[in-house]
Design brief:
The protein has a 4-stranded mixed sheet with strand order 2-1-3-4, covered by helices on one side. The protein is mainly alpha-helical. The longest helix has 32 residues. It is elongated, with a radius of gyration of 28 Å. The chain folds into 2 domains: 244 residues, no CATH class; 98 residues, abc type-2 transporter like domain (abc type-2 transporter like fold).
């Protein structure tokens, strides 16, 4: 009981220390609110309100039909410009796409020829250039095909493929971006807070005060793990409820308590990693550099930014030892697909094992560091 009381009171001390640090408090609030929202909205891959202009040198019913086929929400209303205005307007960044319909276009199409339509694309708009060019190509082909048949709608087909999207039927990328950004913020802040707490005590000299008290290194370390882990857990839960479910309007398919339990296991690993980095680093700038070296690979290779299955096999094998890989898998399975414990228990078990390895290795290094002090 004495050990438990020491861990509890030391953790309360960490919470009070964090409460007196307004910069870190503002950063936590900012990370789990604005950054989650901005990441969800910013990583949208859908074509939306793309600016487009048309040079209509044909002035035919077919060219008018093509122009009227571009409408919201994919494209803004097309604007008619002159041929000499193409370079000037694109250099000024007024339009992402400019179509040039050549003279006698309809006549050549009716004669069975294959006239071309020039599509000028501003490739500096990377988020829209590639997707929009494909949309334009499909729209023009569809309009020409319907014009030649004389009727709207697709021609009779012997086989028709019907695609059905599960878990995200509208292909809304903000749902994916919001949850994955919460995972990124949980990883980063759990490492930053625990590492900064240890560095702060070393710089202020309070670590020496703890060493002369009847405290063990295990108690000191566990207090930082539960205190900083609790802060991140509460902040992430509020972000999921009010930002992802509230502002982003994402439906959660599975059990939020089960997801939060998985996050708690994940925080056991990342907070231990933060103490490890705080023990290795001697100053805050060193800690910041170490966090960049550790956080970026964990973020990019965990499956939150790119599909885990698309990575090289050796990278997939190595990332199985990273807690972020299993936590991202848990988040996607529970929140998107509504999976239960019977599906995600292997990831839970992996997090427990990885967390124990991280904790034991960090405790050994922490004890050695305290012995030297």
């Amino acid at each position: 009981m004495r050990h438990m009381a020491n861990i509890f009171y030391l953790g309360v001390k960490e919470l009070r220390s964090l409460y007196r640090d307004p910069v870190l408090l503002i950063f936590i609030i900012f990370a789990f609110s604005f950054m989650v929202y901005a990441a969800a909205q910013g990583m949208s891959q859908e074509l939306r309100n793309a600016s487009i202009a048309v040079v209509d040198e044909d002035r035919s019913p077919l060219s008018s039909r093509i122009i009227n086929a571009f409408y919201k929400p994919y494209f803004k209303t097309p604007e008619l410009i002159g041929l000499a205005d193409i370079d000037k307007t694109m250099d000024a960044g007024h339009y992402t796409f400019v179509l040039d319909i050549p003279p006698n276009f309809q006549r050549d199409v009716m004669a069975g020829k294959q006239p071309g339509i020039q599509v000028n694309v501003d490739a500096t708009m990377m988020s829209q250039a590639f997707t929009g060019a494909g949309y334009i190509q499909n729209i023009i082909r569809g309009e020409i095909s319907e014009f030649l048949r004389g009727v709207r709608g697709s021609a009779g087909e012997s086989i028709k493929l019907t695609s059905r999207y599960k878990f995200n039927p509208t292909l809304n990328s903000t749902w994916f971006g919001g949850v994955m950004e919460i995972s990124n913020m949980v990883t980063m802040l759990s490492i930053v807070l625990t590492g900064a707490a240890l560095i702060r005590e070393r710089e202020r000299g309070t670590l020496e005060h703890l060493l002369v008290m009847p405290l063990t290194s295990l108690e000191i370390m566990l207090s930082k793990v539960w205190a900083m882990g609790l802060v991140v857990l509460v902040a992430a839960g509020l972000s999921l409820r009010f930002v992802v479910q509230g502002i982003l309007d994402m439906p959660v398919a599975g059990s939020i308590p089960l997801y939060m339990f998985g996050m708690a296991l994940f925080l056991f690993s990342t907070t231990s990693l933060g103490i490890f980095l705080g023990t290795v680093a001697r100053t805050m700038p060193q800690l910041g550099l170490l966090i960049i070296l550790v956080f970026m690979p964990l973020q990019m290779l965990s499956g939150g930014s790119t599909p885990y299955e698309s990575m090289p096999p050796i990278v997939q094998t190595l990332m199985l030892s990273a807690p972020t890989t299993h936590f991202v898998s848990i988040a996607q399975a529970i929140l998107y697909r509504g999976a239960g414990f019977e599906v995600v228990w292997p990831n839970f078990l992996a997090l427990v094992g990885i967390g124990m390895v991280f904790f034991i290795a960090t405790l050994a290094l922490f004890r050695k560091s305290l012995a030297v002090q």
